[in-house]
Amino acid sequence: MRIPLHTKLVTIVVIVGFFAFAKAQTPQVTISQDPKIEELLALKTELTKDNELADRYKIQLYSGNLNQANTILKKYRNKIGTWTSSIEYETPNYKVWVGNYRNRLEADRALIAIKKEFYSAFIFKPER
Prior knowledge:
Blueprint lengths: L4 H20 L11 H14 L7 E8 L1 H14 L5 E6 L2 E9 L2 H11 L7 E3 L4
Antiparallel strand pairs: 1-3, 1-4, 2-3
């Protein structure tokens, strides 16, 4: 059975027309954002940088007098120094704290490395 020529032409015109129409469409996305979102993101970044937002874990290496705390801090920075470290004062002791871990698993992994040099190190969550 032969297909008439005009049926073939109509079929070709429909197919070409469909693809021409499909190609002519260009996607366009418009995003309107409240300007306060930028302010909030900047504020969150600043608070996170200062560790004021985080409910995180830390590792304590030492608690005692200031001279020994400085010695422990220098030893940590020279031997390991991978994570941030600081001396914090909580009456009546100076404490050497390491890290700012998002979860207990991160803190446990760090503690394994730290315990090789600092046997009495332990994980805790500081109170605000």
